[in-house]
Amino acid sequence: MKAPLTRQASAWVYQGVWAVLTELFHVPRQPPSLPGSQILTMRPCDGWLRYRTVGFWIGVLATLLPLSAAGLVILITRPLLAVAVLVPVFLVILGTSLASYVSIHLGYDTTWYVLSDRSLRIRRGVWTIHETTITFENVQNVKITQGPFQRLFGFSDLVIETAGGGGSGPRQQLEQSSHVGLIEGVEAPSELREQIMTRVRASRTTGLGDEHDTELHPASAPTSWTPAHLESLREIAAHVARLRARSG
Fold it and tell me: What is the residue extent of each domain of the chain?
């Protein structure tokens, strides 16, 4: 009974913080829109949120356990020093941990991926909103990446490489790059990759002049001479002979 009440209380606190921050920093609550027909609007999956939350708690424990052991030693040997130093340190850690925990959920709520028939738009960020639009004509490659812990939580990432960009580098660099699109927390990466590549292939065969190739270079062009062609050549040869005779 206590666990559901605790989760409900933390949800209320988070929603309150979220409401204040969205109003204060004018964070858009709705997903971005794209011209053309929108095919898919999504955000990272729940497994991505659990993955980030577990990573947060591991980081907190990795910080608190050594600090608590050192604090216990100081508390036994020099109690006044322990109170004067460790209490402010623990308060700072508590404040930064709370801010980090809230930022994980805010990052989840503000991350959107919108797919249309012509382009892809990625939006993420709370303090600074990064919005990247990638047209399918510029896409060079789409690759799936999945680490062991991502596999444990059941999701993968898609890295969309465009002309002039590369698919390697730190995560933050990929998130903010205008030449690389990073789609995090995808439960069915192969299906999404195929959706994107289908539109990439379609964009390269539509409106680029390829459809006129058969008119300029028809496959059914005649490859043999007809009697009419031969008769025309004879007339031309006779006319050339008459001109030579006159000039001679």
Answer: 11-17+26-203
